[in-house]
Amino acid sequence: MVSSEQRRRQLAREKYERQQKNRAEAMAKAKRRNTVLGAALAVVVLAAGGAWAGGAFKSDAKKTDAQSAPTQPSTSPTAAASPVDVKGCTTPAAGSPNGKQWKTEPAMTVDTNAKYNVTLNTSCGAVDLQLDPSKAPHTVNSFVFLAGQNYFDHTKCHRLTTSGIYVLQCGDPTGSGSGTPGYSFADENLSGATYPAGTVAMANAGANTNGSQFFLVYKDTQLPPSYTPFGKITGGMDVLNNIAAGGVQGGTGDGAPNANVVLNSVTATKA
């Protein structure tokens, strides 16, 4: 017969084992998430010429140089650094991201027979976009929804690549490359997708993990068809080229831009 003391010890041991199991599962989950996010950025590099191995185009960008080209547009953390003055850029508007979160993708409200005009009012100048919901309805719907919620306002464009791939990545309220709006949605418009200068596409952490992070292609870039293209740049390429000319912090080809690029506000209207 089991004594009360033995039973107490057994229950304590079972509780401890459950705690250890939960900790291990949480650590494994976090490790898988970081691996996927990191892979997202590396994916771009793979397609960018075959000379480099890597994952997807992520925000968890590692420093790169002539021997280590940038990876791809993805969503994982990037080390913070101090920006420097870049001609044409000004002090960002006062304010901070609202950090709103949602459990599910917003309901479809965009008109798939129309186009949507977007203005990114950045601290380095305005960049105009035109989004096409006929090709990427869920992506455009999410972007327009987030813009309407002022989700992008006061967020940093946290990543710039200037070697192998040529993009500015934005849309993360944390500025680290790991932020999301709390929901994700499936890839779209990938069949035959290419990324010439002027493309607007989603960064991701692997297949069907789109959230809020997007990238602007300022120079023809070779990437695998893994990033949903959902619009084009219609104005402000000079702004993007100026940001790119300012370079990357630390002198690498992949990381936080020297320019302190902040989306002061983002507006989206039906054309």
From TrEMBL:
Catalytic activity annotated for this protein?
[protein]-peptidylproline (omega=180) = [protein]-peptidylproline (omega=0)
Q: Which PROSITE patterns match?
A: CSA_PPIASE_2
Q: Which SUPFAM superfamilies match?
A: Cyclophilin-like
Task: Say which enzyme class the record assigns.
Answer: isomerase
Q: Name one GO molecular function term.
A: peptidyl-prolyl cis-trans isomerase activity
The family annotation for this protein states: Belongs to the cyclophilin-type PPIase family.
Name of this chain's protein: Peptidyl-prolyl cis-trans isomerase
Species of origin reads Kitasatospora kifunensis (Streptomyces kifunensis)
